[in-house]
Structure formats: C-alpha cells, structure tokens
Amino acid sequence: MPEVLVLVDHVDGEVKKVTHELLSAARRIGDPAAVVVGSPGVTGKVKDSLARYGAVKVYAAESADADALLVTPKVDALQAVAATASPAAVLISATLEGKEVAGRLAVRLGSGLLYDAVDVDADGSVTQSVFGGAFVVKAKSTRGVPVIAVRPGAVEAEEAPAEATEVAVELPAADAAKVTRVTGREVLVGGDRPELTEATVVVAGGRGVGSAEKFDVVEKLADVLGAAVGASRAAVDSGYYPHQFQVGQTGKTVSPQLYIALGISGAIQHRAGMQTSKTIIAVNKDPEAPIFEIADYGVVGDLFTVVPQLTGEVEKRK
Ligand code: FAD
C-alpha cells in the first residue's frame, strides 16, 4: 500500500483531534504516515497517540528552530518526505495555518490542491465545499501528489492501533533572509472551553444577541453543553465577542456534531463556515431568516426567552 502523509497538528506534545481524523481518512487511501514537525523530543510525546489511530510510520522532523519559524519547516518537512516516500496523497487540516502549508506545498510539488474537503474517498478523490459553501462538488487532482486540506470535524476519528516505525527527517537550515521568526506567542482560547475548530458542540451568537454583556446567555448554554462559543461577523464587528471566535468565510470553519445558532440570520458568508455541521439548531425571532433553510431544528422565538429555558433543562438533566 502507498503511504499517505498526514501533517500532525499538536500543541505542547498533545495531538489535536483533527490529526486523528486525518489519519482515519488516510487509511481509506493507503498506509497512514504521520509527519511531526517540532522541537527536539516532541515525536516521542506524540507517537503513541498517532499509532493508536493507525500511523504505521512517524516521520520526525525536529529542530530547535521549528516552533519559531511559522509554516516553513512544515512545508520543508513534507516536501522532503514526499520526495522519498512517493505518497499517494498528503492530508493537512484545513485550518488557517494548514491552508497556508497546503498551498505552499502544492506549489513546491507542482501538485493539484484540494481545499476544504469534507470527505475523502479511497481513490483520493474528495467531496469539497466550494465558493463559500455555495456548492458541494466531487473533485480529484490529476497532477502530481494530491495535497488535500480536510476540514476539522468533517471525518470521524476511529482508533485502529498500529505499530509505528520512527524515521528521522533532516530539515534544511532556515534562510534568515526568507523566513518569518516568531518572537512571542500568546495562546488565545476561551478559558476552559474547547477550542472552536476542535469542539464537538458549538454555540454561536449573532447580532441578535444585542451586546457584549448579553453574550453571557450564549456562554451559559455553551458551558452546560461543554461547548465552544462562536460568533457571527456582525457580532464580532459590533464588539460583542473577540475576532478569534468568528465563524464563517473570513473566520473559522467548523464542522461539529452540533451547531446552535442564536440570533444569527444565516448569511452565505456565515454558512460557509458552519454548514457542514452534522446537526444545526437555530433560534431566531424571524421565521423567514435564511438560517432556517439549513437548520435541522428551528425555534422561532426570542432567544432571551428560549435559551435560558434550554440551559435550565440541560442543567437539570446533567
Ligand atoms: P444579522 O444579519 O443582523 O442577523 C441578526 C439576526 O438575529 C436576525 O435574523 C434577527 O431576526 C435575529 N434576532 C434579533 N434579535 C433576536 C432575538 N432577540 N432573538 C432571536 N433572534 C433575534 N459573516 C459571518 O458571520 N462570518 C464571516 O466570516 C463573514 N465573512 C464575510 C465576508 C465578506 C466578504 C462579507 C461581504 C461579509 C461577511 N460576513 C460574514 C457578513 C455576513 O454577510 C452577515 O452580515 C453576517 O453574517 C450577519 O451576522 P448576523 O446574522 O449575526 O446579523
């Protein structure tokens, strides 16, 4: 079986859920081979987690510089491994950083690039959400090694324990004139809440929430559900919630099991970031709001009446 390279997303030695999803998708095409890029020693911390989801090989591209150089070492590592392994495909998470890596890698390999895949088939073709989510198409790269950016949450992560062999990869020395070096790092997450793109449940608020203070109605429901909080661009632009929580075309793309939209009209640019969610619930006082066109369950009503009741009911059942 040909290898299928998976770029590992990890933070401080912890593998992100999306990597387990990518390894599961890679198994459909060939033998999953994980590519770990990070500071010395990181591969040892993540190897077991990768093998549990089927990685038969773990390429370790470690260097003291790797964490400080943004995307370049990841592209270098994938290019180096692709040159020797002749993989059937390269899978990368369709996060902001992942898309940057995928684009650069495809150029270097002279390959076709498939963005925003929501499903991956055994022959390397994908189901893709394109033009801001306006169309879902089947696509296949006909040039080089396909570079596929898969949306977090789109593919189910399934355990398939394997024995992983570790292979060291030498990273080329960074050219100081060409790279961006990170000099400080601040992790912006919503307290104890799960990371937005990794969360199984997302509760998002829109302009209908009305103010930053009133966003606590959104947060309270999120907290009883163990969910991440998201926001529409109108809510972000109005200063109700920070930008890193924006969902949509110019924000983050999420595909949770459950997406609850509160006071969000459902503009195409918002839908682009959430319409592949498995189940969508919308609360909106306007029965004509476009969000109801894609919602599995809709409540026409004032969110300040509906949501506290829902929060109370969930709390009672915990
Ligand atoms: P509105 O459209 O104003 O809707 C508010 C909704 O709340 C209404 O449907 C109203 O009926 C309802 N409501 C009001 N009060 C209540 C209440 N008390 N109870 C229940 N319901 C209530 N948008 C994004 O979200 N993400 C993006 O990434 C994004 N990128 C964009 C990129 C471009 C290039 C452009 C042009 C636009 C982009 N937008 C994006 C903006 C998008 O077009 C919409 O303007 C935005 O999504 C609207 O946000 P909203 O639904 O919160 O606000």
Automatic annotation (TrEMBL):
FAD binds at residues 207, 232-233, 246-250, 263-270, 284. GO terms for biological process: fatty acid beta-oxidation using acyl-CoA dehydrogenase. Pfam families: ETF, ETF_alpha. Keywords: Electron transport, FAD, Flavoprotein, Transport. Gene3D superfamilies: HUPs, TPP-binding domain. The keyword Flavoprotein applies. Its cofactor is FAD. SMART domains: ETF. Binds 1 FAD per dimer. Residues 4-182 form the Electron transfer flavoprotein alpha/beta-subunit N-terminal domain. InterPro entries: DHS-like_NAD/FAD-binding_dom, ETF_a/b_N, ETF_a/FixB, ETF_asu_C, ETF_asu_C_CS, Rossmann-like_a/b/a_fold. GO terms for molecular function: electron transfer activity; flavin adenine dinucleotide binding. The electron transfer flavoprotein serves as a specific electron acceptor for other dehydrogenases. It transfers the electrons to the main respiratory chain via ETF-ubiquinone oxidoreductase (ETF dehydrogenase). Heterodimer of an alpha and a beta subunit. Belongs to the ETF alpha-subunit/FixB family. PANTHER family: ELECTRON TRANSFER FLAVOPROTEIN ALPHA, ELECTRON TRANSFER FLAVOPROTEIN SUBUNIT ALPHA, MITOCHONDRIAL. This is Electron transfer flavoprotein alpha subunit. It comes from Actinosynnema mirum (strain ATCC 29888 / DSM 43827 / JCM 3225 / NBRC 14064 / NCIMB 13271 / NRRL B-12336 / IMRU 3971 / 101).
